[in-house]
Design brief:
about 220 residues; eight-stranded parallel sheet; 9 helices; alpha/beta; 8 strands; TIM Barrel; binds pyridoxal-5'-phosphate
């Protein structure tokens, strides 16, 4: 547990997979964690973080950014279009583009403001009704729309179903990314990031294994 352990395991998994050192980026998922824990990881020098809620991120990250230059923040939770403007101001990357309406909203705001974070399309590889993400069969079309809108789309993201073998979902995501010419894959969490690295992840999103269990309440 802890940042240095996870950084070490990421490096070991890169090596085992025959991949270049540093080819996998570690997104430290700080949602719900007490500020002291997040601050400790910042003090250790880590700068790449993930949050799943716009509101929650807006409460802590502007102040952290002032104190810790070089922070990069990824949105990894669902985004409502009415929060898109705020999300574009807060985040360096939005990993959860999952429908045409959101893509069009981001493009409109980009035209208005002149800037747009890097984007991933989130794919619902398990086709779970309760889960966000575009269906695998509809992904090519959404990727094409993002390109038509000239959005800065760099990759695909997925969250596999908890009960299933994650490797199958990681392989599916990689296949969809390859046929669309997308180089970045955000996949793998605390329980399965080494599997994801073996399958080609370029970003892993790790929360509890770095910060400890989240305490909701
Ligand atoms: C919370 C969360 C994570 C991190 O989960 P852990 O199991 O704590 O590593 C990763 N990705 C997404 C989308 C999340 O919401």
């Amino acid at each position: 547990m802890g940042l240095s352990d996870i950084v070490g395991r990421v490096h070991a998994a890169e090596e085992t997979a025959g991949r270049a050192a540093g080819s996998v980026k570690l997104v430290a998922v700080s949602k719900v964690q007490p500020l002291e824990r997040v601050e400790a990881v910042l003090e250790e020098g880590h700068r790449l973080f993930g949050e799943n809620k716009v509101q929650e991120a807006s409460g802590k990250w502007p102040a952290f950014r002032e104190r810790f230059p070089g922070v990069r923040l990824h949105l990894i939770g669902p985004l409502q279009t009415n929060k898109a403007r705020q999300a574009m101001e807060l985040f360096d990357c939005i990993e959860t583009v999952d429908r045409p309406k959101l893509a069009r909203t981001l493009a409109r705001l980009r035209d208005e403001t002149g800037g747009c974070p890097e984007l991933f399309v989130q794919v619902n590889t398990g086709e779970e009704p309760q889960k966000a993400g575009v269906l695998p069969a509809e992904t090519d079309e959404l990727v094409a729309l993002c390109r038509e809108l000239e959005l800065p789309l760099i990759g695909l993201m997925c969250i596999p179903p908890v009960e299933e073998e994650p490797a199958l979902h990681f392989a599916l995501l990689k296949k969809i990314a390859e046929r669309n010419g997308l180089g970045e894959l955000s996949m793998g969490m605390s329980a399965d990031f080494e599997t994801a690295i073996a399958q080609g992840a370029t970003y892993v999103r790790v929360g509890s294994a770095i910060f400890g269990e989240r305490v909701y309440g």
